[in-house]
Design goal:
Layout lengths: L1 H7 L5 H20 L10 H29 L10 H9 L2 H11 L3 E5 L7 E5 L2 H10 L7 H12 L8 H15 L2 H28 L4 E2 H18 L14 H14 L6 H10 L2 H30 L10 H6 L11 H32 L1 H16 L16 H5 L2 H13 L5 E5 L4 E2 L5 E2 L4 E5 H4 L3 H4 L12 E2 L2 E2 L20 H16 L2 E5 L20 E6 L2 H11 L1
Parallel strand pairs: 2-7
Antiparallel strand pairs: 1-2, 3-11, 4-7, 5-6, 8-9, 10-11
Helix pairs in contact: 4-5, 9-10, 9-21, 10-15, 11-13, 12-13, 13-15, 15-18, 15-21, 16-18, 16-22
């Protein structure tokens, strides 16, 4: 810039000035005779100055925006705020991107979107803040209008999306049912049936055919059948020989994926796209139709059964039947729409979370064979304590509930998998009155809050320098499993919204994992890409392609010797 200025303002020699003046006069004179056109050379100097001023301003803006990254976590650009960084994060691994920012900012930062949008929120992974939000000031941090609106089309007024009295009514009813002896017995019986008469035959068939399988898909089928049996009293037969296509499952996954896009899109834009039926909103609308078809059929079938056989109403233990027997505040039976919302929410809770957690668990085991050896040693030791340890094809080993309960190392490994790859990677709240976090962050009424559960598992301040390692031993004290605070390990939420199905989820995952590992070595196909998918639950984006190798008796005996 300096060199250019010196060039255009270089002093002229006195002798040359008269010549220059004469030439300029001649040029102007000839220019006037040619039609009064002024030479553009006269404007060259101002144009260069304007360009240099523009470049200088641009450089200043860039430097100023980048400087704010140290203080605010991300560059803050005029008008668009932090949006460019968000777009860049969406193009790679969104969860790792958020984790990196939170680590740099000591666990909390404020995301500032474009000034003309509502893409503004506080993001935290600080356990002190999370306990404050989920327990201490629970009433100040409901799901909120923004969250409910974004999920309304899919989840409606179901337990995951509801607040206040609607949420309390559903939770109380579900809690009573979940803790009943009849329901607990039904969970163990249905799981045994599904694992030994559907899951294991499907896996054995793949071994006989030397075929690779998508284990995530198979586990999703298993948990879908399981939750439908428990929550609705129906058996969709999703996990059957030949693995039939289930339209609902495809629609449900597509709907959760399309819904999450709303959280990174300005509200006015996604609402306009919904109105015009464009882009992801078109996909969401089509997917929800598929979800509704399944839910409507389940509800109609159950109503018909209860009408024809009213005596069975009290004998049934599924949640749908229980809610059908209840009344709302006006003393009326719950509407068809409300029952539909209950169905969809419990499918989300019971199908996706456990199956996704197991998928990441088997992937981690493939990368950590020493952990797998320790799990097998524990399983073989527990099986070896039986008096009737001899099994064969006609009488296969079936783990008993009391045996599953004693599998401490397996539960530690599953918890460690959930710490690193939580089924719900982020969750949302909204502030209904001005407040201050324990870390000093000021949050104003109306602020949207995101607590990053995935990022918590990667914080050295929470889990130590080995936080990114798969280390089940961190959950053990004297070889016994010890649970962590719900505000340090938030995979099952915490406070009044603590997951009702936590105990069943652990039992389900332990029973399934032990039944598979006792019989097969699960090996992930070489070079198969394993990355998280951006959705409400953290699916593995391309599924989990695996090959199974059958274990023989000599291998199991070796593991039994190791355990002793």
């Amino acid at each position: 810039m300096t060199n250019h200025t010196m060039h255009y303002y270089k002093p002229l020699h006195p002798n040359s000035m008269s010549t220059t003046t004469s030439n300029m006069t001649s040029s102007l004179s000839s220019g006037c005779h040619a039609g009064n056109i002024v030479s553009p050379r006269l404007f060259f100097l101002p144009e260069i100055q304007i360009l240099e001023l523009f470049l200088a301003l641009l450089v200043f803006i860039v430097i100023h925006s980048l400087r704010q990254q140290k203080r605010q976590g991300l560059p803050v650009w005029p008008v668009v705020g932090m949006l460019p960084s968000l777009v860049a994060g969406l193009r790679v691994d969104m969860y790792e991107w958020i984790s990196d920012v939170l680590i740099r900012q000591n666990g909390t930062f404020e995301f500032k979107g474009p000034s003309f949008t509502n893409l503004k929120c506080v993001i935290t992974s600080d356990p002190r803040n999370i306990e404050h939000v989920l327990k201490t000031k629970f009433s100040v941090y409901p799901k909120g209008k923004y969250f409910r609106n974004a999920l309304q089309d899919l989840l409606g007024d179901g337990i995951f999306n509801a607040d206040n009295e609607i949420w309390q009514r559903q939770r109380k009813t579900a809690s009573i049912e979940f803790h009943s002896t009849k329901f607990r017995n039904l969970t163990t019986e249905s799981l045994l049936e599904l694992v030994h008469h559907r899951l294991l035959p499907v896996l054995e068939d793949s071994v006989n055919q030397s075929a690779c399988i998508d284990l995530q898909d198979i586990l999703l089928r298993l948990t879908f059948d399981n939750v439908c049996m428990l929550a609705f009293g129906v058996d969709p037969g999703c996990l059957s020989p030949g693995l039939p296509e289930i339209p609902f499952a495809q629609s449900f996954e597509a709907a959760t994926e399309a819904t999450i896009i709303r959280f990174v899109t300005p509200t006015l834009i996604w609402k306009a796209m919904r109105y015009l039926n464009l882009g992801p909103e078109k996909k969401l609308k089509q997917s929800i139709k598929g979800v509704d078809i399944f839910a409507d059929e389940v509800i109609r079938t159950r109503k018909k059964e209860l009408t024809l056989q009213s005596g069975d109403k009290r004998q049934r233990s599924d949640l749908l039947t229980v809610f059908m027997g209840l009344k709302d505040e006006q003393g009326q039976s719950f509407s068809h729409k409300f029952l539909r919302d209950i169905c969809v929410n419990f499918i989300l809770a019971g199908r996706d979370t456990s199956s996704v957690a197991l998928s990441w668990f088997f992937w981690l085991l493939d990368r950590n064979p020493e952990v797998e050896k320790r799990i097998l040693s524990e399983i073989c030791r527990i099986a070896g304590e039986r008096n009737d340890t001899k099994t064969d094809a006609e009488c296969p080993l079936v783990f008993r509930p009391e045996e599953v309960k004693k599998m401490d190392y397996l539960q530690a490994a599953l918890s460690e998998s959930l710490r690193l790859y939580p089924s719900v990677p982020v969750d949302h709240k909204e502030v209904v009155e001005d407040d201050v976090f324990p870390d000093g962050t000021v949050v104003k009424k109306g602020t949207k809050l995101v607590y990053a559960i995935y990022a918590m598992g990667r914080m050295e301040s929470i889990w130590g320098q080995d936080c990114r390692e798969f280390k089940p031993e961190r959950w053990l004290r004297d070889s016994r499993y010890i649970s962590e605070s719900a505000y340090k390990f938030t995979a099952f939420n915490g406070g009044p919204r603590l997951c009702l199905g936590k105990d069943f989820a652990y039992y389900q995952m332990k029973f399934v994992a032990a039944s598979i590992l006792y019989r097969y070595r699960v090996k992930v196909v070489e070079n198969h890409p394993v990355v998280p998918k951006l959705a409400l639950t953290m699916y593995i984006k391309h599924g989990l392609k695996v090959e199974l190798c059958r274990r023989d008796d000599s291998q199991l005996e070796n593991y039994l010797k190791i355990s002793h």
